[in-house]
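User: Modeling request: complex.
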Amino acid sequence: MSAIQLIYLVPLLPLVGFLINGMARNTLSKTATSVIGCGVILLSFIISLTVFFQVNKEGFTPQVVSYFDFINAGKIQVHFAFQVDQLSSLFLLIITGVGFLIHVYSSSYMHEEESPHFARYFAYLNLFVFSMLLLVLGANYLIMFIGWEGVGLCSYLLIGYWFKNVEYGNAAKKAFIMNRIGDLGFLLAIFWMLQAFGSVSFLDLFNPSFGAISSISAINSPTLVGISILLFVGAMGKSAQIPLYTWLPDAMAGPTPVSALIHAATMVTAGIYMIARSNLMYTLSPITMTVVAIIGLATAVFAASIALKQNDIKKVLAYSTVSQLGYMFLGLGVGAYTGAVFHVMTHAFFKALLFLGAGSVIHAMHGEQDIRKMGGLSKHMRITYLTFFIGCIAIAGIPPFSGFFSKDEILAGAFANNPVFYVIGLGGALLTAFYMFRLLSLTFFGKFRGTEEQLHHLHESPSAITIPLIILAVLAAVAGLFGIPEFIIPNAHWLDHFLDPVFAQSKALISHHELSHGTEWTLTVVSSVLILLTSIWAYKKYAAYKGEAAPETGFGKVLQNKWYVDELYDAIIVNPIKSFSIFLNRVVERSGIDGLVNGVGRGVNYTSRQIRLLQNGQAGTYILMMVLGIIVLFIVQIFSR
Amino acid sequence: MQIQWYIFLSVALFCIGIIGVLTRRNSIIVFMCIELMLNAVNLLLVAFSKMHLMNGAAKYPALATDAQLFVFFIMVVAAAEVSVGLAIIVMMYRNTHSVDINFLNRLKN
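Assistant: Request completed. Predicted assembly structure:
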């Protein structure tokens, strides 16, 4: 039996895990919970792996497995169907693989939680994996949207996991509402597609021989530009791009493994997946491509600049995630689709690694997240330090680690499109190297700046935490080899070759002005040298940090306060809405609606008090009334003839 | 005899009944007046029935027999009603030592 027929098990198993852990959360022991929670993901991963090998064979064509009619109304037919092709199988591997490691990590990290809450955590985590798998497996935009909403819900539930803390609850609400704003764009795009093409299935839209969009030859047709912009609005919300990015840093309120899985490795890359899936639509509307590239680039640099001055270990990583997502969108916007997906993959490895490493540090520091109070941890936590170091090199883009290859591919694509993009993008990459090595130095080098008691309790984390770290570190180190660029070794770009069928139609349309190998070498060497120098500078600068607390002034203060974007949003959106709500409550609700409702009540009360007097209890009166009534009826009868 | 005399008689009886019900306070008399009204109707029904049967060319002979059936129905119902009504009046008298209907205005207020 072919593995593709078993594809339904991949999302179904996490759903089963969610149901078991969710329903039996009061009875299951912690060990049983974690075995179930991790086990279902492991099984999913194994199936995904066999599916992947089948997809990787020569001559594989995308397969759509349809289960039942989801919507069948008039001309509109939407099937509940899964599509297995190169892109989705790659994402399956990332989600289940990284997901499994993070589940294992969580079983140790969350062990101090009480048993029902521990099970609740794993139930949410399994539900998340289920939704995410639904998102990438869906064979049409509607199924994708179901998964899209599902991951948003799980993100909300997990950010607010410690719901007794009001701040965390607010962060969860913020994430949910911002995502909803984006989702509205996605939903409108789906409606528009149904109206314009009568179908939302990928096959009907993008099939080379009969696809509705494939047959469009006009560039920048208003319909396509509109739909692609609306889809991008959805991606902005989910993947935290300007102007909807502020939820992601706040989402760090959730447990650290959640930040690693949802807010770094998988969910936030859903937007990139969606655009990569609709690549033809974007290629046909260059206006949208430019918008995507500019917003991606702006986000990349903007978020990187904020990360320079953050002191919370998770906040630095959060802004770094926003910035890296910006790079992915830059890649999509300049037509380097493979590069963007490649960066999703490498980013999933190294950012999950960094978050998990940060979790290990926080664990050892008993919940301390301020890097100014850390330092010198490399002596106490060898494995965490070494793996975190590898993650840092990978994200900074120092060869030959994975981030170097993927970032370089995106930057090369940007240079081919517009050298200005390249220069700004390289600036952002230098910022990345700087803040990552600042983080590394402040955390692991120099003198310990915490309390005596913390120093006394410093310890390496247990093996359930370190083993995922080691695996991810290996992946972060070598994943770049899947995409060695042409100019270093010809025909060694495995990923490009693998994903070729997905992007073939777009590649045929994009006018390639190939960079000469000489230019590419120059770009790579220049960027690598600059990044290396910046890293060393940042390391030197902060390794000697003593914990002096000079308050930031001028531009540094602006950066530390995140460009005052939250305050700006509060001033122009949140507060006006709040005042409007208060106005509605005090004026419209209290005196308008309440007045009307109470008025009706009072009126009825008054009239009935008057009419009540007719009931005087005298039987004679009643009979008189009856007789009079009958006489009236007779008279009416007579005169109505 | 002309039909109108029967009509006059039953109208007179019916009006006496109504006026009695409206003006008297003794519940037994009220009760008798109700019976009077019922019997006024009975009388009218019988009179019309007779009229239809006497007149050989009546349009709807079936109506004539129907009317007599109604009379029996009304008599049976009236008999049943009398037994219930009198029982109520007896109970009322036992509880209040009065048969004045205006005495029974406790539901007021």
